[in-house]
Design brief:
Keywords: Signal, Transport. This protein is an alpha/beta fold. It is built from 13 helices and ten strands. The chain has a single domain, classed as D-Maltodextrin-Binding Protein, domain 2 (3-Layer(aba) Sandwich), CATH 3.40.190.170. Strands 1, 2, 3, 4, 5, 6, 7, 8, 9 and 10 form a ten-stranded mixed beta sheet that branches.
């Protein structure tokens, strides 16, 4: 009997507690929320996909941009970076951006030349003489004019980032003269200008995506490539191709892009923070990209099995004359105005 009374008493206490709770919050009321968790749910995430290693100018600048934007927005925006083609690769990242499957990418501008032929002006060999020329053009009115052309594809062009000057890496004999290219299979990005520069030297350009390049080299499908020192070192291409020639014949740069619908969905104050962060990251990029390439070159110079040559000034001048038909074709087939504008920008130093 005593056990029955005790059990009934406990049951009554529980019922009173439930009724009191329901009166306090209502039968259909929402439970109190964790304020900290609510803040996390409100955080905007930018997924940033790119295809190179983290220890490269693009990889480090992407990290810098993410840090700056998170600081400037007090954590309201978080940038998640996917390097090395982890999320999207060379072939599908642009479609992913246009479709809104990813918020940001930074492809080489050479990969945009089939879509926007005017951009191939940046691929013209020996167009730029110094890193300062590159920065002045890509961060000035001419670069802005190119970025604005992305609007028709639902893309917000944010900036151009620099990797550096391209060199020649081979698995056979070193390249010391234009005739050394004859018969070689050379990896080139899908840019008509880049491919034409090798056909002029009687080589066969092969359009191989960056994420497949190492495998193709292992299979000995390619004899040579053009690339920056930072990419050659960070991706370990020097392990398969041992002869490096410093030519500085062209630049490798990137167009930093954001899905325009996503950008427009941001409150105005956050749009401003995105632009602030991208501008500061871009300045950081141009300040540090050459330093990173120089440091990686020093690392390559320490390797006894990597042979480094520098193209002579006389041979550089010979190459420039041989490349003249590429300039003529650009003027006739694409835009004489664009070429005149960029040459004027470079020469008005």
């Amino acid at each position: 009997m005593r056990l029955y009374i005790t059990t009934a008493f406990i049951t009554l206490i529980v019922l009173i507690g439930i009724i009191g709770y329901q009166q306090q919050f209502g039968l259909d009321s929402t439970l109190p929320t964790d304020e900290e968790q609510g803040g996390l749910n409100d955080q905007i995430v930018i997924n940033f996909s790119h295809i190179v290693a983290e220890n490269t100018p693009k990889g480090q600048t992407a990290i810098k941009f993410g840090e700056l934007l998170e600081q400037k927005t007090d954590g309201r925006i978080r940038v998640v970076i996917y390097p090395n083609g982890m999320l999207y690769n060379d072939n599908n990242e642009l479609n992913a951006l246009e479709n809104g499957d990813v918020e940001m990418i930074a492809p080489s501008f050479s990969k945009m030349t089939n879509t926007l032929p005017t951009w191939s002006v940046l691929d013209l060999p020996y167009l730029f003489n110094t890193e300062e020329d590159v920065e002045r053009v890509l961060t000035g009115p001419f670069g802005e004019q190119l970025l604005n052309q992305l609007g028709r594809f639902n893309i917000k062009g944010l900036a151009f980032w620099n990797n550096g000057f391209k060199q020649i890496l081979t698995s056979g004999k070193p390249i010391l003269a234009s005739g050394d290219f004859k018969g070689l299979k050379v990896r080139a990005m899908p840019s008509k200008v880049l491919q034409q520069q090798f056909t002029l030297f009687q080589a066969t350009p092969v359009a191989t995506s960056f994420d497949e390049l190492y495998t193709e080299l292992e299979k000995k499908e390619l004899n040579a490539q053009e690339n920056t020192i930072s990419n050659i070192y960070s991706k370990g291409f020097y392990k398969l191709q041992k002869n490096l020639t410093i030519t500085n014949h062209g630049i490798l740069g990137y167009a930093v892009m954001m899905n325009e619908d996503f950008y427009n969905s941001l409150p105005t104050d956050l749009q401003e923070k995105v632009i602030e962060a991208i501008n500061e990251a871009t300045a950081w990029n141009f300040e540090h990209s050459k330093q990173m390439n120089d440091k990686d070159l020093e690392s390559l110079q320490l390797l006894s099995d990597v042979h480094i040559n520098t193209l002579s000034n006389e041979e550089q001048q010979r190459w420039q004359k041989l490349f003249k038909p590429i300039y003529d074709d650009y003027r006739k087939q694409i835009s004489e105005t664009f070429l005149e504008e960029i040459e004027k920008e470079i020469n008005n130093n």
